[in-house]
Amino acid sequence: MALYGAAATVLSGLEAHQGSLKTLVYGSRFQNVRQLYALVCQTQRYSAVLDAVIRSAKLLEAEKKLKPHLAKVKRCVSRNEDLLESSPGAAQVIQLPRFVRVNTLKTCLDDTIDYFKREGYSYQGCASGLDELRALEGKRFFLDPLLPELLVFPSGTDLHKHPLYQAGHLILQDKASCLPAMLLAPPPGSHVIDACAAPGNKTSHLAALLKNQGKIFAFDLDAGRLAAMATLLTRAGVSCCEIANEDFLSISPSNPRYSRVQYILLDPSCSGSGMVSRQLEEPGAVSPSQERLHALAGFQRRALSHALSFPALQRLVYSTCSVCQEENEDVVQDILQQKLGPFRLVDALPLWPQRGLSTFPGAEHCIRASPEATLTGGFFVAVLERVDEKR
Ligand code: SAM
Which residues sit opposite 191 in a β-bridge? Predict the structure, then answer.
C-alpha cells in the first residue's frame, strides 16, 4: 500500500508542477525507486484509459476516501491490457516497438541476428510494412523495411542488460532518431560537424556510416551530457570524433579546422513535445507555451543559419523531437526565405509515409514522424543541400 500512496503523491506533485518525475520519485523517500518510477510511468502512460475506467465505474463516488490519483494507481497495477481493450480511450495509447540499431563499428547484421536466434528469438525477415510491426509480439523480431541495420522487437522488450548492448554492439535508438544520420549519409573519409551532439546516439551513427574514417567535430554546451557521450562513444568503438564543450554558435566557419566540413547534423535543443518519455516526466512538455516555443525557435533559427555559413557545406540535416510547427516547418521556411546561400530542400526518403505540414510550397519534402503514422516518437527532419550553381 505504501507504494500506491507514494505513487499517488508523486502524481499529484507532477500535476502541481512541484518538480520533474525523477525529482519527485527520489524525493519521496520510498525505498524501491525503480518500482515506484515504473508504476508512476505506467499510470501516466495509461492515464486517459484509467480516467475513462474510473469515470465509467463511478469509482470515486463509490469509494469516497479514494483520491483520484490513488484510484488511478490502484487500477493501473491490475491488467493494463484488459483496460485497453475495454476502454473508450484505448485508441490513444500506442505501444511503440523496441527499435535496435546494429552498431556496424563493432559487429554486423548477420552476426547479431544469429545471436538472437541462438537465444530463442525467431527472426521474421524484413517486415512488409507497419501493420506487421504493430502486430509484433512474443520472441519474434523483424528487420525494419526502411532503415538498414535496424531491428524491431516487440514493445516492452528490455535489452538494457543484454550482453550485446553492454558491449556496444547494439544502440537502443528510436527509428525516427536514426533518420538524421542516415539522411546526411556522409561517405567514409569526410568531415562532419555534429552541432548539438550530446548524448551522442546520432554521433555514433555518423561514425558507423563513416566507418570511423574521416572526422566528426562534435559540440555541446552541457558538460554533464558530454561526459555521458564520451562513455557512449567509447563503448560504441567510435574513434573518429573530437568532442568539444563549446557553444556551436561561437564556432568560426572561417577556422581552417573546418574548411573540409561538407556535412552538418543540427539536432538542436527543442521542446521535446514529440518524446513519449518527456511527456511522462513533464506533462507540460506536450504543449509548450508560446514564450518557450518562441525562445527555442529563435535559437534553432540562429543555429541553422550559422550552420549554413560553413563554406564547404554540401548537405545539412536539421532535426527535432518536437511536433510543434514553430520549431519545424516555420524554422525551415524562414531560413529558406532568407536565401542564406544556394540551398534547396531535398525530398527526403520519399517512401516515408508522414510528411511535413503543408505550410509552404515544398514543405512536404520534410519528414514528420509520430506514434500514429510511423510507430515512432514524434520527430521532424529536413534535409538541405547546396545547389550546384555551375550546372
Ligand atoms: N543529437 C543528440 C543525440 O542524438 O544524442 C541530442 C541533442 S539534444 C536534442 C540537444 C543538445 O543541444 C543538448 O545536449 C544541449 O546541451 C545542446 N545545446 C544547446 N545549445 C547549444 C549550443 N549553443 N551549442 C552546442 N550545443 C548546444
Answer: 215, 261
Please indicate whether residue 379, judged by its CB atom, sits closer than 6 Å to ligand 1.
Answer: no
What is the distance of C-alpha 23 from the center of its chain? 22
Q: Residue 82: what pLDDT?
A: 37
Question: Quick check: CB of 174 below 6 Å from ligand 1?
Answer: no
Domains of the chain: 2-85 (no CATH), 98-172 (3.30.70.1170), 175-386 (3.40.50.150)
Instruction: Report how far ligand 1's centroid is from the alpha carbon of 361 (Å).
Output: 29
Q: Provide the annotated active-site residues.
A: 321
Compute the distance from residue 197 Cα to the ligand 1 centre, in Å: 5
Q: Which atom of ligand 1 is nearest to the CA of 321?
A: 9
Query: Which atom of ligand 1 is found nearest the CA of 202?
Result: 4
φ, ψ (nearest 5 deg) of residue 80 = -55, -40
User: What is the average pLDDT across 104-131?
Assistant: 97
199: cis peptide before it, omega within 30°?
A: yes
In terms of residues, how long is the chain? 391
Nine-digit cell at 61?
A: 463516488
What tens digit of pLDDT does each residue of 147-164 get?
999 999 999 999 999 999
**pLDDT at res. 283:** 57
Task: Decide the pairing of beta strands 315-320 and 261-266.
Answer: parallel
Ligand 1 atom at minimum distance from 248 CA: 24
**How remote is the CA of residue 270 from the centroid of ligand 1, in Å?**
9
